[in-house]
Amino acid sequence: MDHGTVDQAPDILISKFEIEQRVAALAAEITRDYRGRTPHLVGILKGAWIFMADLVRHIDIEVTVDFLGITSYGPSPHSSGEVRITKDLDVSIEGREVLIVEDILDTGRTLRFLEEVLTVHKPHTLRVVTLLDKRSRRIVPVHADYVGFEISDVFVVGYGLDFNQKYRRLPDIHVLRQATSP
Ligand code: IMP
Ligand code: MG
Fold first, then answer.
1. Residue 179 Cα, ligand 2 centroid: separation in angstroms?
2. Closest C-alpha residue for ligand 1 atom 17
3. Are 117 and 144 in contact (CB under 8 A)?
4. Is the Cβ–Cβ distance between 140 and 154 less than 8 Å?
């Protein structure tokens, strides 16, 4: 497999136009659901930063934002199950309407970890928006309240998502390889 070909011969799974439309639709749902309140968006670094930047610009109510940096490590570059915080939240989430902003749900281990960590700090509500959901890969039974696209068992890059820190800058979402299973 030649990872370099992604840049020149893109195998696009979801185009930037489809992403833009879906992100606007998600933002409209969030706007409607949180009308009269000020949700606190917690973006998960680094994968969700581009998605979050687009999402907040389509949300039509006041929001506050913060970021949580995490890293997964272990036998594979993704879905290892070992998650570590690399950047903590800056402000308290106690009593807040927290909305976790994730790039992709795979086995669900990362989200389970995030929910456990954030629940300790007593948010009033805790919901999840994820751009992508590989539901067929789930090991831990977590779910997102807002899902951009459900995708099959393929490894994707672009629009913030990486493989070994590469390809985050690509405007569309590309398939890097057909299966994430080892
Ligand atoms: P989980 O803990 O197995 O749900 O994995 C979630 C994390 O694995 C995501 O936040 C990504 O960092 C990474 N990941 C899973 N699948 C992909 C993929 O297809 N492309 C890029 N990163 C992925
Ligand atoms: Mg991630």
1. 17
2. 155
3. no
4. no
Catalytic residue list contains 106: yes
Beta strands 97-105; 125-133: pairing state: parallel
Question: Which protein residues have a CB closer than 5 Å to ligand 2 (ion)?
Answer: 47
CA angle 107, 109, 113 (to 5 degrees): 160
Domain segments of the chain as ranges = 15-154
CA distances to 6, 53, 98 from 163, rounded to whole Å, are 11, 21, 28
For ligand 1, atom 9: residue with the closest CA? 104
User: How far is the centre of ligand 2, averaged over its atoms, from the C-alpha of 54 (Å)?
Assistant: 17
Say if residue 171's pLDDT is above 90. yes
CATH code 3.40.50.2020 for 15-154: yes
Atom of ligand 1 nearest to the CA of 103: 10
pLDDT at 4: 47
Does 87 have pLDDT greater than 70?
A: yes
Instruction: Output the pTM of the full model.
Output: 0.91
Mean pLDDT of 82-100: 95
| Strand runs labelled E in 74-135 | 82-87, 97-105, 125-133
